[in-house]
Amino acid sequence: MLVRCWGARGSIPVCGEEYIKYGGDTTCVEVRGKEGELIIIDAGTGIRRLGARVAEEGVSTIHILLTHPHWDHLLGFPFFRPLYMESSRIHVYGYYATQDSVRNIISRTMLPPYFPVRLEDIHAELTFHTTEPEGFCIGSIHIKTIPLNHTNMGVGYRLEEGGQSFVFLTDNELTQSHPGGLSYDEYAAFCEGADLLFHDAEYTTSDYMPGWGHSVYTDALQLAIKSGVRRLGLFHHNQERKDGEIDLMVEDCHRTVEKEGAGLEVFAVATDTESSL
Questions:
Q1: Cβ pair 173, 215 in contact under 8 A
Q2: Predicted confidence (pLDDT) per residue in 133-170, tens digit
Q3: How far apart (Å, rounded) are the C-alpha atoms in residues 8 and 235?
Q4: pLDDT of the residue at 199
Q5: Separation CA 242–CA 159 (nearest Å)
Q6: Could you tell me the pTM of the whole model?
Q7: 110, 112, 115, 165: which one has the fewest Cβ atoms less than 10 Å from its Cβ?
Q8: Buried b (16+ CB within 10 A) or exposed e, 64-97
């Protein structure tokens, strides 16, 4: 299983020389299975570049897992090149009550006067699905889900293949309670023994805003340590967080890991980060 990041920024895309190292595109992560499956988690602005590569490769079957419908996770969807190719078969999965609601949320990103092309006018074949609590499979990859502790709710994912596991929990507040969210211990159990965890690390202790649906990076670190995760990627970087400031967060995590004697590798996820599991 290959995990590649196309956007790790939160809230809104940013640009400038102070954001070059970790990138400015919003949430989009690509997962490739051993049988060639293409799974995309979220459709932030990073999906635009990914779409160009997918089109060049000629991949026709695409699965998009949505965590929740906030703008930074959907902004890139109308600019995903395979949407405009008749050969594309795109499956979209969302954590909503009915398939119609998944379609409706997606369609609102492509309504005039905000966008010139309607969803019903695209060339690709689109199929909408709701995620199942008991999990589901895409080819050789088994996918488990968990409700996020976030404003307006959402879903996190655990992808497993060949004994390896990748957990994606962005927009997840570990120390506050939101409707539909779960306890800290339940998130720890979901992450247990994961080879790779990408977790929301929006805040530091000094700028934390309780109740906004995001975590302090030190809380994400403690979750990873408690869960016995092998590698932790700090994710959903604050829109104002410069490269040097993110570096300091990672350095602080390294000191904590060394002090506690935890067998954990910590890094900040950047655009184009790749991990082979």
A1: yes
A2: 789 999 999 999 999 999 988 999 999 999 999 999 99
A3: 6
A4: 98
A5: 30
A6: 0.97
A7: 112
A8: bbbbbbbebbbbbbbbbbbbbbeebebbbbbbbe
CB-count exposure of residue 246 (10 Å: 0-12, 13-18, 19+): buried
Q: DSSP string covering 1-29, please?
A: -EEEEEE-B-SS---SGGGTTT-SPBSEE
Q: Which of 273, 263, 269, 264 is nearest to 241 (CA)?
A: 269
- Confirm if 82 and 68 have CB atoms less than 8 A apart: no
Encoded tokens for 177: 């309670």
166-207 residue pLDDT tens: 999 999 999 999 999 999 999 999 999 999 999 999 999 999
Q: How far is the CA of 40 from the CAs of 3, 7, 63, 256, in angstroms? A: 10, 11, 6, 32
Distances (CA, A) of 19 to 8, 24, 151: 11, 6, 27
Instruction: Give me the mean pLDDT over the 99-103 stretch.
Output: 71
Strands of the 164-169 sheet, one edge to the other: 136-138, 141-147, 155-161, 164-169, 196-200, 231-235, 265-268
Residue 98's pLDDT is what?
Answer: 43
The terminus-to-terminus CA distance of the chain in angstroms comes to: 5
Is 52 in contact with 79 (CB distance < 8 Å)?
no
Residue 96 has pLDDT above 80, yes or no: no
Rg (CA), the chain: 18
Query: Which domains does the chain carry?
Result: 2-268 (3.60.15.10)
Please give the Cα distance from 133 to 103 (Å, whole number): 20
Contact 196, 165 (CB under 8 A): yes
pLDDT digits (tens, 9 = 90+) for 36-70: 999 999 999 999 999 999 999 999 999 999 999 99
* Position 171, amino acid: D
Task: Count the Cβ atoms, other than its own, within 10 Å of residue 25.
Answer: 25
